[in-house]
Design a protein that fits this description.
alpha/beta; Rossmann fold
Amino acid sequence: KLAGCTLFITGASRGIGKAIALKAAKDGANIVIAAKTAEPHPTLPGTIYTAAAEIEAAGGKALPCVVNVREEQQIINAVEKAVKTFGGIDILVNNASAISLTGTLETETKKVNLMMDVNVRGTYLTSKTCLPHLRKSRNPHILNLSPPMNMNPMWFKNHCAYTISKYGMSMCVLGMAEEFRGEVAVNALWPKTAIHTAAMDMLGGAGIEKQCRKTDILADAAYCILTKPKSFTGNFIIDEVLLREEGVKDFDVYAIVPGHPLMPDFFLD
């Protein structure tokens, strides 16, 4: 279904971004890996080049690009390179994200700037840069990895800056879905439970993975969304809810430890 489509995925060198890339690669898609890690990181697995090798092995074509979404020129350069290499862009996945689960007085200004720059501004600028190319595609999609906007104060009180930044990504969905209705589908995807990534290990500490699902569940849900017509737009989708609607019954396959109680994700009451 995604054979020959070009996906521009931010933060695709590891975790959820890479899982979505590998799922699309199995169809023979072209993947632009727009991520920061060109040299191996001391504590985090993977680089844009190791991800590219995995994507090619899965059946896709890969274009690794060094992109820090805080730097507009790096976004522009990568988009130009993608269009030159693959002839266009069909899908944008805004996956790159920064997190600090800290209270207002504990959140350093540089951390506030990082979350606002990566999550809100990075998502906005990458969308803005890709949109002229997306509009030329037959079935263009933007997918933001961001939550439904839940205005329950409990989601703000413990990590106000992080919540503002993630809801900023969701507001991009709200606005752009309406602005480009009929031209480009714009949706958000969020997990029902915690997902096991390097970031989760860092935040949750030892043993946290038992309470998590694999990144595969988000890759499968993203695939469902990105293969729908562009009239499917403006939705805030929860992975498990969508997959149940699509007929999936066995969710144990997604668990790191089948049968173990799962930790619900943020922003879902």
